[in-house]
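Re: the request from the purification team.
They wanted to know what the chain is likely to look like in 3D before they choose a buffer screen. I agreed to run a prediction and write the result into the notebook, where they can find it.
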Amino acid sequence: MKLLKSPICYNISPVLLLILLFLLAQVSVAAQENQTADKKQPPADLKITSDKMVASKDQSVVEFMGKVKAVRADSVLLADSVKVFFHTSETKKEGRSNVKRILATGNVEYTEGERKAFSDQADYDTAEEILILTGEQARLLTGKSWITGKKITLFKAEDRVVVETTEENRVEAFFDAEDQDGSLNKP
């Protein structure tokens, strides 16, 4: 039997290779869990407290201002301002939340389980379950491990994170050796 040789780049850092292999394993496990999970979960309630609220029925949006705290299922969002966008009767799908999008600005802090995030702005699409954190130093923490960048996108349904940055401020990450799995993807 003849073995075929394929080109392999041997300049990959062993640490980077281990991280990539670990992330691929996490994605594989998450994909298997998603296949067996019941996708028809009822929408979670949303409770918001603030100093002030302004509603605009024409635009299907409610803005909360001043020491805003939004609680939904096991997540807490703190910010200076939070806008909640609602589906109209034409865009609402049966079994889905009336909340279409949540946009938080100013001193944003987001907590969900072990995961914590800090940014200047957070934009959450409820249907796609995508949270986008932006700011000069958007930061995501899990345990003692952390990662920073200009834009951090959490694909919650896929259990995946993408971090983007600029030439001036590159992505920085720290993986604590004592964290159980060293992953920023686990909530």
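For the purification team: Confidence is low (pLDDT under 50) at residues 1-40.
Please add any questions underneath this entry.
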